[in-house]
Every structure is written in structure tokens, then in C-alpha cells.
Amino acid sequence: MSDPVGHDLELTTSALKAGPTALGIAGGLVEIQRWQERFDATDAPALEEIGAMLAELRGELESDQPDRAVVADLMRRLSAHTLAITADLPEGNERARLSELGNLLAEGAAEV
């Protein structure tokens, strides 16, 4: 049986490896949409908070002139929350992927 969360993590980390500029706004919106749909199906407070930040990021990216400082701040906050979640996970593939995602978000925030 396949792991849909693991698959989504792999897609997102692969997309972010080249950086958010290479991913572009359209690509970023695809990734945000994927995670918003996943988080809409959960009651976990930490994930709901990340979902709210994703909604903010989506709104900023969909605006006529996205503010780079706002986008960078949201990416830094998403990175911090993602890395905080990894601290509570057992060692393994999921923790490694989430940690990589958190680090890529931080790197991307510096690039924006």
C-alpha cells in the first residue's frame, strides 16, 4: 500500500529543491493547494495552524503584486512550525522528509 503523505512530501520537497523562484507562483500555488486539502481533513491544532499560514501565503501569492517580505516571513514561519513538528516524531523516513521540508522552506525564505 502506498503512503499518500510520504508521496506528497516527496513531491513538495522535490519542487522546493530548486528554490521558490524556480518553482514560481503557479507551482507554489499547486503545492499550497495540495497541503490545504490534506490539512482540511484533520483536527490536529498544529496542522490547523500551518493550514492557516498556507491560506495566508496563498492569498499573498494570488494578489496582484505579492509582497516578497510577507512571503519570506510566511515561509520562515512555516519552516519553524514544520521543524517543531518533527521534534515530536520518531526517527524514520517521515521525520527525515519533514525535516528536509522545514529546511527547504527556510532556505527558500532567504531566496525570496
Question: Characteristics of this structure?
Answer:
single chain; 0% strand; mainly alpha
Overview of this protein structure:
The protein is globular, with a radius of gyration of 13 Å. It is built from 5 helices and no strands. The model has no long low-confidence stretch (mean pLDDT 91). The longest helix is centred in the N-terminal third of the chain and has 21 residues, at 20-40. With 112 residues, it is an all-alpha fold. It has one domain.
Shape: globular
The total number of structural domains is: 1
Mean pLDDT: 91
Give me the strand/helix succession.
HHHHH
Fraction of residues in H or I helices: over 70%
Instruction: Detail the poorly predicted runs.
Output: none
Q: Treating each run of at least 4 consecutive H or I residues as one helix, how many helices? A: 5
Helices, strands, pairings?
Elements: H1 4-16, H2 20-40, H3 45-62, H4 68-87, H5 93-111
Helix pairs in contact: 1-2, 1-5, 2-3, 3-4, 4-5
Short description:
With 112 residues, the protein is an all-alpha fold.
